[in-house]
Amino acid sequence: MEEKFPRGLWVRLIIYVAVGHLFSAFVYLLFTLGGQSQ
């Protein structure tokens, strides 16, 4: 079985997904806390 993607691409993809999730969670937290304070 041949690998379709090189290893570096998988590492980069995982990093992008992790950073994207962290960023969206941070934005969601800001909106949630901001909504509660009003």
Automatic annotation (TrEMBL):
Name of the featured protein: DUF6126 family protein
Keyword Membrane: yes
Highest taxon of the lineage: Bacteria
Transmembrane segments: 9-31
Organism: Streptomyces solicavernae
Keywords (A to Z) from UniProt: Membrane, Transmembrane, Transmembrane helix
